[in-house]
Write a structure and sequence with these properties.
By secondary structure, the chain is mainly α. 71% of the residues lie in helices and 2% in strands.
Length: 339
């Protein structure tokens, strides 16, 4: 448990220490946010706020994870999780870089994003399928064991792409995605720690499960490092934000959460624990579908859902607080199903 706490503290500290260095550098490079023309009017005041600040917590998470992971097993657990986070963060970085250089809200073209995400999600899903520690069997606290066979790969590809893009959509208000991810990651860290204790208690004489126990602890360290990085980033990202994470940060966090989902082998649980992130994607799909099928009629004032609340008169700090409260409750319910 000490390593998890140290990883959390170290990641938060590094993210906070980087802010007085990274934020002025982003300003000098003129890497400012380009707001959507069709976005809420209040967001126009955020034009020019430094973006791509996600590099701060990405660096923090990498340092904390590598510093405290169990090295004998980290190559099969926490390091692939870090690589997944970095890979999707790189796609987001390229998207951000094009936006700030061309001074427009459109970065990578849609087909480029889709191609990159399909390639990365296939690589991650194939690795997980072949891994002796993950495999094609899913576990659900209600449905029990689910064997997917080769169907595991397309299913996990869908899960990864859905989580990454949902995280990207959720990043629309000061501190929203970082706050929600903080709570989700702490809950997952606790869940991984519980898994490690179960393996240790019931399979102490079986080397395979002893290795899995160490792996679960490494993933717990990774989860707490992600939580700590988000906490440290909130120092600069809470309202009024001094820096935005950009697609660099939101896609990296999506990759990190995808890795946690895969290693937990309970992807359906994300529908509960990450309900606010899921709501962002669902509201966007409903809005687009309604607009096209109902001849311009909308379900929400604006999608994703947090912008609907914003246009309904709620201050963004109230919306962020509400999302964090809901996430806390749903994560506690999910933990209650397992613990």
């Amino acid at each position: 448990m000490q390593k998890m706490i140290f990883a959390f503290i170290a990641s938060a500290a590094v993210a906070m220490l980087l802010s007085p260095v990274v934020i002025p550098m982003l300003r000098r490079l003129k890497y400012g946010q380009v707001e959507r023309v069709e976005g809420p009017h209040a967001n126009s005041a955020k034009e020019g706020t430094p973006t791509m600040g996600g590099v701060m917590f990405i660096i923090a998470i990498v340092i904390a994870t590598l510093a405290f992971s169990y090295y004998d097993i980290a190559l099969r657990y926490s390091i692939p999780a870090v690589i997944t986070m970095l890979a999707f963060g790189l796609v987001g970085f390229l998207d951000d870089f094009i936006k700030v250089k061309r001074r427009r809200n459109l970065g990578l073209r849609a087909y480029q994003k889709i191609a990159a995400q399909l390639l990365l999600s296939f690589a991650v899903a194939f690795y997980a399928y072949k891994s002796e520690f993950i495999g094609s069997t899913l576990y659900d606290p209600i449905l029990g064991k689910i064997e997917l066979g080769w169907g595991y790969i397309p299913f996990i590809m869908f899960v990864i792409i859905a989580i990454v893009n949902s995280a990207n959509l959720t990043d629309g208000l000061d501190g929203l995605l970082s706050g929600v991810t903080l709570i989700y990651s702490v809950a997952m860290g606790i869940l991984f720690l519980y898994f490690s204790m179960v393996f240790t208690e019931y399979f102490v004489d079986q080397p395979m499960f002893v290795a899995q126990s160490d792996g679960m602890r490494s993933m717990s360290i990774f989860a707490f490092a992600v939580a700590g990085g988000c906490l440290g980033f909130l120092k600069s990202n809470s309202h009024p934000a001094k820096v935005f994470m950009g697609d660099t940060g939101s896609m990296a966090l999506g990759g990190a959460m995808s890795a946690m989902v895969i290693y937990s082998r309970s992807p359906m649980l994300f529908l509960l624990m990450g309900v606010c992130i899921v709501a962002s994607a669902v509201s966007d799909v409903l809005q687009v579908g309604s607009y096209k099928l109902r001849h311009g009629k909308r379900v929400f004032k604006m999608a994703p859902l947090h912008h609907h609340f914003e246009l309904s008169g709620y201050h963004e700090t109230k919306i962020v607080a509400g999302y964090m409260i809901v996430t806390t409750i749903t994560c506690l319910v999910a933990l209650a199903l397992f613990l």
